[in-house]
Amino acid sequence: MSKKMHIKLNVNGKDEEFLAEPRELLIHTLRERLNITGPHIGCETSHCGACTVSINGKSVKSCTMFAAQANGAQITTIEGIGGTDNLHPLQEAFKEHHGLQCGFCTSGMITRATKLLEEIPNPTEEEIRFGMAGNICRCTGYQNIVKSIQAAAAEMNAAKEAAE
Amino acid sequence: MKQTVSIRGSAHTDLIHDSAIKHVSGGADYCDDIAEPIGTLHAYFGTAKVAHATINSVDLSAVRAAPGVVGVLTAEDVPGVNDVSPTGRHDEPLFATEKVEFWGQVLFAVVAESRDIARRAVELAKIDYTPLDHVIEADEAVAKGYPHVTPPMTLKRGDVAEGQAAAAHRIQGQMRIGGQDHMYLEGHIAFAMPGEDDDVIVHSSTQHPSEAQHMVAHVLGVPSNAVVVNVRRMGGGFGGKESQMNQFCAVAAMAAKKWQRAVKIRPDRDQDMETTGKRHDFVVDYDVAFDDEGQIQAVDNTFAARCGWTSDLSGPVTDRALFHADNAYFYPHVKLQSRPMKTNTVSNTAFRGFGGPQGVVAAERMMEEIAYKLGKDPLEVRKANFYGDTDRNLTPYHQRVEDNVMPRLVEELEQTSDYQARRKAVLEHNAKGGIIRKGLSLTPVKFGISFTATWYNQAGALVHIYNDGSIMLNHGGTEMGQGLNTKIAQVVAEAFQVDFDTIKITKTTTEKVPNTSATAASSGTDLNGMAALNACEQIKERLVRWACDHFGVEALLVEFAPNQVHVGDKTFTFGEFIKQAYMSRVQLWAAGFYKTPKIHWDREKGQGRPFYYYAYGAAVAEVSVDTLTGEYTVDRADVLHDVGKSLNPVLDKGQVEGAFVQGMGWLTTEELKWDDKGQLRTHAPSTYKIPLAGDVPREFNVNLADWSENRELTIKRSKAVGEPPFMLPICVFEALGMAVASVADYTECPRLDAPATPECVLMAVERLRG
Ligand code: FES
Ligand code: FES
């Protein structure tokens, strides 16, 4: 066993501080240490996207990052995007447009999509399909996932315009 | 004044998935999210690294000695029977003893303080084997005289020799159809908690909690009443969690009882793919005789399947391949045989369609053969062979097709998809002889609904109304994303005329409904919906009887209106009404039961009515193929699918879309590869390619046949939807074939094998160019 490291994270706005072995994976920190179970484990090899979180504004697959690598970072998981009574427009859209079946991919999909819409606020269908290529869904055939993201983008852009 | 209020979430309305809000906010609990009690242990399988061998010695001393390891489980530690065979054939040892029969077979399990420790400790085992010859392919198994894992079946009608003699044409050929990994996003998992006496509770992600319960009891050597299996929801199942979860449940339960601590087992994705079964690969030898019009006169086909090392569900799977070897077509003279072959591979299992898709693909191959031979549009040949309404309607298993909507469905789709004009355009495009070739194809699906194991067609449900008017619903089905819970709650909401939110749908548990069937064969809603309705009707009957008595009115005057009950000229809210009934000591709960009527099946004779009804669908796909690289895109797909009178169109449409894309993956990119040593080399999403968001049809129009109603008295006249649409993307496969065939001016059937990977397409192009 190697020497434990002192790690500080800010997860969903809350400061966390703990000692962990250098090999502790971020997904395990989130799920097991912090009891944040929205990010799921699908493949543990960076391929499925079920574990996607945002780290300092970037989409990251938390199954292949060490907690130590995230030291000092701001992390957002699905839980930090919106709760049941204050859903983010993407969450609302996935719910309303049936962008989910078993739901196992959903938290990663939505977390990734929040960043996609920051990268490209008004994406074409092609851009959505390409931008979501790191997230697998085995149930939906992606149709409603794409629709949900389109609907959320429209909603968010309209809200932005109204505010301007 | 008559008010047109209605309840929220009645039957036949678009209602979002009941867990949707939890899914989008991360609050939906899967098995791995259940909080672990202090002291939870973790188990991990040690598996064989050889495809076929005798085991000389097993040395686990280093495993046991590893820090953090609590113990090891082998066959010797099994208190009951070392077997998890789902059909009771006793051919599936939980832990291997003398022999290894496939690469990835479970030899032992390590139980440790953490999952990481258990995974590392597994590597310390020293196993000495003497390797034996192994067989991977089904036809190789036939050639080498390998046994059947379960008795084969033959379906026969008419006289094939006579039909062949009278026919003008006859074609013989062979087609290879690949398997498929389920790739459910949530892998296998079981989490066991020891109880007092013999008791154990197992949380799992299984489609078949009752079977898992019986298997755990069998392995532990305790009665079934000592074991509880709970399933809240699954992160996808698709058949892969029907029988395959048994081994995980059994090991977790064994360890929990032995060490009296909670034990979780969750393989990583590679182990999940190596040690659990997949869709059966088939080698189909076909022999079809037909006349100048392309109408089939005789069919004589043999279906050899790669079943793996045990029978598992291969009997009913290969049977279902034969039941669907006709797809939507009438064969005047027919003989169909199954060869469920033993191979040194993981034991193949249930997967959406359950053998049916392989039968359908082979039927469609024959249509293509006929069309190329006669120089016709394959659609014309398909139409010429459709089942008739009153004649030409007998299946190879002697059931009459009485609800045929195929001609109407196909005609409608042909119009809405503009098939004829587009076919002309595709032919013209290809005639120019460019590098990019196009293909267009329309294929039908007819799929029989019911478990062919007739006794499986039963279900139970438990409905409680609490004295505040809230309702709790429990049934024997499991939720894996298909929206079963939502649909059944809609049925209950409609029965009592209360808003959907009045109803709480609880986890599936063997404690509430016993002896349930697997949530499989697309039957979840058909069976459990009827059982729930039966429970509601019992309670309603009691309530009406009581109200008549109590208020002195006739039964006719007791009306369940939206969220209210009218009794004569009095009106109560549903809650008030229930409270009064409770005060008058009315029993406010009921257990419902249902068994599918009309079905029977004699496997020996190959005759009966195995299916209650059929579901139908059709799809058209247009593809572009790069003939220099074999790469392709699906430019457009149009679907028209029959779900009867849909209980929930938005959920049903989601099932159709998802099934289409999953089926397309099976036929195009999802390739399972074993190496010379018998190791599966595609055991993770890095090497096994399922469709991504950008791989689906560029334009995708999916419609439900809104005029359809089930002719049989199913739940609200709906039809099952889980499996039938899985076969719709066969049109993609055939369209690829057309694009390939264009390089030889359509004079030769392209004979693509499945999956038609770009590599396979390119090789076919080269072959046809000669
Ligand atoms: S679990 Fe991290 S990408 Fe699959
Ligand atoms: S909804 Fe099941 S994997 Fe996407």
Task: Characterise the protein shown here.
The complex is a heterodimer of chains A (164) and B (770). Chain A is of the alpha+beta class and 164 residues long. Helices cover 38% and strands 15% of the residues of chain A. Chain A has helices at residues 26-33, 78-81, 89-96, 106-119, 125-131, 143-163, and strands at residues 5-11, 14-20, 52-55, 58-61, 74-76. In chain A, helix 3 (89-96) packs antiparallel against helix 6 (143-163). Chain A is globular and about 50 Å long. Chain B folds into three domains: 40-133 and 188-266, Aldehyde Oxidoreductase, domain 3; 281-452 and 602-769, Aldehyde oxidase/xanthine dehydrogenase, molybdopterin binding domain (Aldehyde Oxidoreductase, domain 4); 458-595, 2-Layer Sandwich (Aldehyde Oxidoreductase, domain 4). Chain B has 19 helices and 29 strands. Chains A and B meet through helix 2, helix 3, helix 4, helix 5 and helix 6 of A and helix 1 and helix 17 of B. The complex binds FE2/S2 (inorganic) cluster (2 copies).
Distance between the termini of chain A: 56 Å
Question: What is the arithmetic mean of pLDDT of chain B?
Answer: 97
User: How many DSSP-defined strands of chain B?
Assistant: 29
CATH superfamily of the largest domain in chain A: Beta-grasp domain
Q: What are the segments of chain B in which pLDDT stays under 50 over at least 5 consecutive residues?
A: none
Helix content of chain A: 25-40%
Describe, in short, the structure shown.
The complex is a heterodimer of chains A (164) and B (770). Chain A is of the alpha+beta class.
